[in-house]
Amino acid sequence: MQVRAWQYAREELFNVHFYTWLSQEIKVPALREILRNFAAEERRHYDFWREYLGKETGYSGIRLWWYKVLVWLLGPTFVIKLLERGEHRTIAEYRSLAEKLPPSQLEALLSLIEDEEKHEEAFMAAIGEAEPRVRYVGFIVLGLSDAIIEVTGVHAGFLGVSHRPLVAGIAGLIVGFAASISMASAAYLQAKQNHAVSAPRSALYTGVSYLLAVVGLALPYFFTQRMAWAFWLSVAVAVLLILAFVYYSCVLFERNFRTEAIESIAVLGGTTILSYGFGELLRWLFPEAAIG
């Protein structure tokens, strides 16, 4: 019990410092006040475990620095959702500990549980104004997923008609650039029907995410002379991108990561096999058109 209490105290103290820092970074007054309240609640939680232990504890400064970086890269909503995932487990553990505490401490622990359960609801009610890009996650995922599937398919198809990585890489960039413009235009028209989002920003998020994915997938073809190496390195980049954006969206929208990742990778695998088969078919039908 002492070890677990020490871990809880460290976690609560970390939350105090993180929420205090974040409340100073957020510009929206309502959300800033919510985060200050979070910090005050976490301070009370830390004090409970400190009194239980009879001594002070520290927290990880490196972890706090890393979470600050994550806020800058991925936004406060993702990071707080990530913290809340851990707090869901903590709440379950607190409930299991309730039976082991004396009545004098039981009431305080139940108050801690109530505070933790209210955190996410209060935060999500105010986040829309502070971080409007959350509304554009769907457009980012659309750009990334379409780019990964389409450009990986182009590269797989070129396995059947060419043994020159540079040709396949350039072809992927050309197709990807044209497709990014097409996807951005489609996102713009789609967003025009939805007054909750900005059409230009929707197009920008979709087009840029698509183009960045295209560049990442094409890079291996410019650094090796072996087609097979280039292709499998590009597939590895595609899988990493899939896992990254699936994890991001699963944390934000509380979905099952394993299920979403398996489905996305299965679609990628199916596309790759079909595209490679189609490339081989074209090579068999038009052998004079094979490149290198």
Count of the separate structural domains: 2
Outline type: elongated
Q: In terms of structural class, how would the helical and strand content be classed?
A: mainly alpha
The arrangement of helices and strands along the chain is: HHHHHHHHHH
What is the helix fraction of residues, given as a range? over 70%
Mean pLDDT over all positions: 79
Largest sheet: none
SS strand fraction: under 5%
Determine the number of helices (DSSP H or I, runs of at least 4 residues). Answer: 10
Q: Give me the Rg, rounded.
A: 25 Å
Distance between the termini: 68 Å
Residue runs with pLDDT of under 50 for 5 or more positions: none
The beta-strand count equals 0
Topology:
Layout: H1 2-25, H2 29-53, H3 61-74, H4 76-97, H5 103-130, H6 137-161, H7 165-191, H8 199-218, H9 227-253, H10 257-285
Detailed description of the structure:
The protein is mostly helical. It has two domains: 2-128, Ferritin (Up-down Bundle); 133-289, no CATH class. The protein contains ten helices and no strands. It has helices at 2-25, 29-53, 61-74, 76-97, 103-130, 137-161, 165-191, 199-218, 227-253, 257-285. Helix 3 (61-74) packs across helix 4, helix 6 runs parallel beside helix 8 and helix 8 runs antiparallel to helix 9 (227-253). It is elongated and about 85 Å long. It starts with a helix and ends in a 7-residue tail after the last helix. The mean pLDDT is 79.
